[in-house]
């Protein structure tokens, strides 16, 4: 469930990253709006894509200790 939601949100963030420059050059949004949208969407993409691609281990909650 979390992977599915993070995949959807990551792809939405990527879409915003692609749409923001087009909207800016079309004159629909200002430069400040473009920078804000692109920076937030970029940060969202990196965080959410990492969550989407993380592998879940079956060892339990303390599997990271000692590795």
SSE pattern = HH
Main beta sheet, described?
A: none
Number of strands: 0
Silhouette: elongated
Number of discrete domains: 1
Report the sheet-strand fraction: under 5%
Structural class category? mainly alpha
Low-confidence segments, ≥5 residues, pLDDT <50? none
The overall average pLDDT, rounded, is: 86
Features:
single chain, 67 residues, mainly alpha, 2 helices, 0% strand, elongated
Walkthrough of the structure:
The protein is mainly α. The protein has one domain (2-53). 70% of the residues lie in helices and 0% in strands. It is built from two helices and no strands. It has helices at residues 2-25, 31-53. Helix 1 (2-25) runs antiparallel to helix 2 (31-53). The protein is elongated, with a radius of gyration of 17 Å.
């Amino acid at each position: 469930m979390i992977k599915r939601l993070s995949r959807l949100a990551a792809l939405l963030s990527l879409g915003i990253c692609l749409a923001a420059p087009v909207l800016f050059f079309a004159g629909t949004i200002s430069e400040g709006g473009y920078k804000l949208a692109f920076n937030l969407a970029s940060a969202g993409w990196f965080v959410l894509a990492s969550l989407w691609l993380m592998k879940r281990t079956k060892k339990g909650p303390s599997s990271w200790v000692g590795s």
